[in-house]
Design goal:
This protein is mainly alpha-helical. Helices cover about 50% and strands about 10% of the residues. The N and C termini lie far apart (about 115 Å).
Length: about 350
């Protein structure tokens, strides 16, 4: 073979080698890019979102949740990665934070490990048990019916030492960290633990000094809470109601009448409303009502425990509608205060 032929053969071999290398690089690049897109490419949308995996979810339920809420930029790459990484069968319920820039691998590992983001559950001043159950179902996995059934469960309530009427005082308004998929019974157990922590020896001793149980303190606090627009008036109002209790005088608290009538749009308590037959009507029944008329705040509970030592027996909203009250020791002073307030209501054409 001549030199010219050798050069030609060598050149062809080089071209073949280059072609093979390019082909390998192309194939490698293709699979490398596919591997990158499947596992390592950012796949979350720009905003931080929360993925809720309900108890009993199958993998297809998860995919549907992601699609419906538009949580990922490429659902097909996620499903491929989930299949290869064995997410099926290891899916754990919970509330998961999908931060900006997360890739499929990190999302799937988070779901498999159950590394969910806790809920900061904050509640206060919720009027009725039904409202509370609805609030809880909007922030935790169990539905409102599950919560209300437990709130009305005699067996559960008795276990914790409450009645159906007063069980609502067990929930101390605060901010609590817990997992979204906490079961309803576990939530109640947590709240009972928090109740016991709140009612420490100091608070129990203060309640005993008032001849009240912790439950009675909370029931009275719910009335104080409903009466007081401003926290600084709470100890004064608490002192007034304790004076009435100690003297055997009917509490005659308007908020209890409104609660008994189940009409929270009332702006003026009329004689018709006062006639309602209910143990919550403190114009008819002596002592405290059987349960709270709203979820009492910590401030109101502490106001009862640290009452203002006054001699007031009567109170009436101020005629300037500021939210403050006029307090009185004698019925004559109270009648004058009440007339000023009635006149102000009439002037504004407020009759109910």
């Amino acid at each position: 073979m001549s030199n010219e032929e050798n050069k030609k053969s060598s050149g062809n071999g080089s071209k073949i080698m280059i072609a093979l290398v390019l082909a390998v690089l192309a194939v490698g690049g293709y699979y490398g890019l596919k591997l990158y897109k499947t596992y390592f490419a950012p796949n979350t949308t720009g905003k931080e979102k929360y993925l809720y995996v309900r108890t009993g979810y199958k993998i297809d339920d998860l995919y549907q949740e992601i699609r419906l809420r538009d949580m990922l930029t490429d659902i097909s790459s996620f499903t491929a990665a989930a299949e290869k990484m064995g997410l099926q069968g290891t899916l754990k319920p919970g509330r998961y934070k999908l931060a900006k820039g997360m890739n499929n691998r990190s999302i799937i590992n988070m779901l498999k490990a159950g590394n969910q983001d806790p809920v900061m559950l904050k509640f206060q001043n919720i009027r009725k048990k039904e409202n509370f159950a609805a609030f809880l179902s909007g922030n935790l996995e169990p539905d409102s019916l599950t919560f209300i059934n437990l709130l009305d469960s005699a067996a559960l309530i008795e276990k914790y030492g409450f009645t159906k009427d007063n069980s609502y005082v067990m929930f101390i308004p605060n901010t609590y960290e817990m997992y979204w998929n906490i079961s309803a019974p576990d939530f109640f157990e947590r709240m009972h633990d928090e109740y016991n922590k709140f009612w420490n020896e100091d608070r129990k001793q203060k309640a005993a000094a008032l001849n009240l149980t912790p439950v009675q303190v909370s029931v009275l606090a719910s009335i104080v809470d409903a009466e007081a627009l401003y926290d600084k008036e709470m100890p004064i109002i608490a002192g007034l109601y304790l004076n009435r209790l100690n003297k055997g005088i009917l509490l005659q608290a308007d908020p209890t009448v409104i609660y008994a009538n189940d009409d929270f749009t009332v702006k003026r308590v009329t004689n018709a409303l006062l006639s309602v037959q209910s143990p919550y009507n403190t114009y008819k029944y002596a002592g405290l009502p059987p349960g709270p008329i709203m979820m009492p705040s910590i401030n109101a509970i502490n106001a009862v425990l640290n009452r203002d030592n006054n001699d007031y027996i009567y109170m009436c909203a101020k005629e300037d509608f500021s939210g403050y009250h006029n307090f009185a020791i004698t019925v004559q002073d109270h009648d004058r205060n009440a007339k000023k307030y009635r006149d102000a209501l009439n002037k504004r054409n407020i009759y109910k």
